[in-house]
Amino acid sequence: MDIAIGQQAGASIVLLPLAGSTFSPAIPSSAVNLSVLGLSFLCTAGAYLIYFALIQSAGALKAMTVNFLIPIFGIMWGVIFLREQVSLHLVIGLLIILSSVILVMDVRLTKRRKKLSLEKHDGAI
Prior knowledge:
Layout: H1 2-20, H2 30-58, H3 60-64, H4 70-82, H5 88-105, H6 107-124
């Protein structure tokens, strides 16, 4: 948790001067301000809490594979809401991403290892 707090504090310190240099002369409405606060606290902060809980329970490597799924959901939302076209190249790219997630998560090898370890123990008895 200390690392997460330090990461967010460091990012805030670095971005604060840049945010000051990009102010618009128009004052945002209260709806815009509330939307930004809602997104930052409810969505971003909530997602980080869930993400760090996932790291603690599943491990860093498995939690990191969540990032591989971002393009899949981005494409899915683009197709649903923006009526974007799905091409063959896109499907091939998604299959590559999904196969990398399967390899990193060690899905097939884990099942085989359990079977192999059971067979070794059965033969020793």
